[in-house]
Hints:
Structural class: alpha/beta
Strand content: 15-25%
Helix content: 25-40%
Number of strands: 16
CATH architecture of the largest domain: 3-Layer(aba) Sandwich
Order of helices and strands: HHEHEHEHEHEEEEEHEEHHEEEHEHHEH
Number of domains: 2
Largest sheet: 7 strands, mixed
Bound molecules: pyridoxal-5'-phosphate
Shape: globular
CATH superfamily of the largest domain: Type I PLP-dependent aspartate aminotransferase-like (Major domain)
Distance between the termini: 16 Å
CATH topology of the largest domain: Aspartate Aminotransferase, domain 2
Number of helices: 13
Strand order of the largest sheet: 1-9-8-5-4-2-3
Amino acid sequence: xxxxxxxxxxxxxxxxxxxxxxxxxxxxxxxxxxxxxxxxxxxxxxxxxxxxxxxxxxxxxxxxxxxxxxxxxxxxxxxxxxxxxxxxxxxxxxxxxxxxxxxxxxxxxxxxxxxxxxxxxxxxxxxxxxxxxxxxxxxxxxxxxxxxxxxxxxxxxxxxxxxxxxxxxxxxxxxxxxxxxxxxxxxxxxxxxxxxxxxxxxxxxxxxxxxxxxxxxxxxxxxxxxxxxxxxxxxxxxxxxxxxxxxxxxxxxxxxxxxxxxxxxxxxxxxxxxxxxxxxxxxxxxxxxxxxxxxxxxxxxxxxxxxxxxxxxxxxxxxxxxxxxxxxxxxxxxxxxxxxxxxxxxxxxxxxxxxxxxxxxxxxxxxxxxxxxxxxxxxxxxxxxxxxxxxxxxxxxxxxxxxx
Length: 404
Ligand SMILES: Cc1ncc(COP(=O)(O)O)c(C=O)c1O
């Protein structure tokens, strides 16, 4: 009997995904930061060391650490000169920041539809949404699955638009042998606690374009070109040394942490084979990409189940699968932020006179289809192959138990 109906759960001790555990050498360096008094990147060495490691990991010329993935995306758009009157195309099937970054830059987010196999932006739909106002496309590598970068770079060349890679969920992913975050004009990373590496909070931008890097660096720190001399509108998006020291050590251990994640993922996918394509479809990488597995995404065959998706999620939690959630239940354009269009107040940027157009967010069928049936498993390096096998067992038990 399903645990949600009072039966024995698959796992008595629930499976919980947790970020990295730090060993003595990291604790020693944290102590050094604390006792040195150099808590900020302007005085310390760790943020700079991390930036170098990140740039070399990605194979890019410039990487700058910031306070979060959200500020990284904002900074990326500002560094490209995105502003009032511009449109930025992105996916509605993502975390809000992929789209709110455009709003923060006073530009209008425009949503394109996704591909049903990858759940990433569909290049053909992006192309349909391009207008003379389009300045950039924020391409999200959702869940760690690299988006079709060759197609997006062709669109960039054809229409003269910038490609911003949102790599918040995809550190370590590869598209045709190139690292996600090294292909577009600029990329943005998040180091929030659930991400591949974490400083609790944190983010970064990366680019190969010297002029864009220069602007990003300036905007990150008040647009200050000389002591108390301000050249352009900037912010304080600097990371602290305590975040820098954690991230430096984690990126050094990336391969080991990723191997553990992959072992868990393999156990889940192997265990789901009997129901894959029947009661559910696991989103699996195409042969030419390397998925970096922030999430395992599973599309439920909702029409074959006697209960709705949210009941399935609750039932899985009751079986002890603590790392299950729904990413994402609602396409962004359906949420009040994008329905009300109040933005910065007085309707800006949608009603900004520099824009001069009316925005209407029409339903995007594939995004709505995915939002209705997706469930996701958070993948972190504490999870074991046994956790993976139990997770698959719980999913099979719940879905078979709810078969119509
Ligand atoms: C796709 C995507 N973009 C951007 C962000 C924003 O990152 P942060 O939470 O570090 O601001 C996230 C965070 O979850 C994300 O998943």
